[in-house]
Amino acid sequence: MRRSLFRWFSRSNDPRPRRRAQPPRTQLSVEPLEERALPAAGITAFDQAFLAQAAQTSLLGFEVASVAAARAVSSGVRQFAQGVAAGYAQALSQLTPLLTAAGVSAPVPGDIDRQLLARLAAQRGRFVDMTFLQINAQLSLSGVALYSAASAQIAALGPGIADAVNGTLPVLSQNLSSSASALSGGGYGNSPTAFLTSLSASAGQVLATIAASRPSS
Description:
By secondary structure, the chain is mainly alpha-helical. The protein is built from seven helices and no strands.
């Protein structure tokens, strides 16, 4: 980036006369129609965006929970993590055919996802439990916001998407509640206090947004 700026600055301050710029040549590249992933009838841009984000969240949630299921100190947290992983696996199995029908690529872990996984992997002892509960609460809250936005216009969703929303939203809400309860009553001292305060504020904003998006009766 700095090198590009330097070159631009040098050209803009060069006293030598410039040659008249030639119009760029346009090269057309036509992709064979049969090789494109075309969405099925009734799929909208909103459907595609929702499915992509939902699959990304489910993949990360499954990987985080799988780490905690293997490394958590508390048997209760390990058992909870196993249930969370199974829930995300179920969501992914339901989303996979919908992604294909919508012409949406399968999720791939991004930089932020890898950072969260690395943060969890670096923990030791009970910090594995606490860090998992915090990450799971954050993922659950973002999932609740995402699925609630889809639920607000459920009648307009593409084929099969409404069933995925109705099936997964209650699971995410329960995951959020269970993680918050485990953090507040798990004997972690004052460490989760600031996190829970921030989580509560964020949850309040999500609930207010959900309420505002619902059509008035």
